[in-house]
């Protein structure tokens, strides 16, 4: 927020240790009314807020919140791992066994430095669009509005001494990040898998209203258009910072 000329709002926020940041910290409700156009894709036909739930048809339990829906998502890695590592992801996450990895540049509650981007900043995606729909439903990583700020809840901290999380099970809401598991703009005619079809999932699809693909930001700051027909091995390599693989054309 300070880098978006929103230092006044930032100074009002309370950052407690617990994951219920809204409970007992009324100052944080100022975020409900924040509207930052920089977080919206100009091609998204929907508004900046959503007064219905993620189905865009049913009423939410608290429509008065109207928190902003962000059209971009941080990339926490890709699954399966491009080089077959089994200790960099967990499969015990709410929403149909979705898988959260710590191999990307944006990991909840952990700072990743440029020096950690072993594959090179021009070969690693840090952000991607998530402004489209799956089966006509808005399923972005923060589409539930009231749960908008959650990032892996109480179990989100990765153990500094290992690549595995501190524990498994429990609540693993990954608002704001996604581990890439499906092609861009993936769409199922008869219902997406739960791990791709739930806003609570760690594998919400990167998508957009653009024809043919999505925009993505590489760690060097450049923007590239990723085709929905991109080779999945190439996409997974792009989303992982340290697999040591040579990325092909994309």
From TrEMBL:
InterPro entries: DUF1559, Pre_pil_HX9DG_C
Domain DUF1559 span(s) in chain numbering: 1-232
Domain of life, source organism: Bacteria
Alphabetical list of Pfam families matching this protein: SBP_bac_10 (PF07596)
PANTHER family associated with the record: GENERAL SECRETION PATHWAY PROTEIN G, TYPE II SECRETION SYSTEM PROTEIN H
This protein's name: Prepilin-type cleavage/methylation domain-containing protein
The species this protein was found in: Gimesia maris
């Amino acid at each position: 927020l300070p880098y978006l000329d929103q230092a006044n709002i930032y100074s009002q926020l309370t950052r407690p240790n617990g994951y219920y940041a809204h409970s007992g910290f009324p100052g944080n409700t100022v975020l409900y009314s924040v509207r930052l156009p920089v977080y919206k894709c100009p091609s998204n036909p929907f508004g900046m807020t959503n007064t219905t739930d993620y189905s865009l048809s049913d009423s939410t339990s608290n429509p008065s919140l109207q928190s902003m829906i962000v059209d971009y998502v941080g990339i926490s890695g890709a699954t399966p791992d491009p080089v077959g590592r089994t200790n960099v992801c967990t499969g015990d996450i709410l929403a149909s066994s979705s898988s959260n990895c710590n191999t990307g540049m944006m990991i909840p509650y952990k700072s990743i430095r440029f020096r950690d981007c072993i594959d090179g900043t021009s070969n690693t995606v840090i952000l991607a669009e998530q402004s489209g729909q799956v089966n006509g439903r808005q399923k972005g990583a923060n589409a539930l509005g009231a749960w908008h700020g959650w990032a892996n809840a109480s179990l989100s901290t990765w153990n500094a001494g290992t690549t595995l999380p501190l524990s498994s099970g429990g609540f693993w809401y990954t608002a704001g990040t996604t581990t890439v598991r499906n092609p861009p703009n993936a769409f199922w005619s008869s219902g997406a898998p739960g791990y791709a079809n739930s806003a609570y999932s760690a594998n919400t699809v990167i998508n957009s209203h653009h024809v043919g693909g999505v925009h993505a930001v590489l760690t060097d700051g450049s923007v590239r258009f990723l085709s929905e027909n991109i080779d999945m091995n190439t996409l997974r390599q792009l989303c992982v910072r340290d697999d040591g693989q040579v990325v092909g054309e994309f």
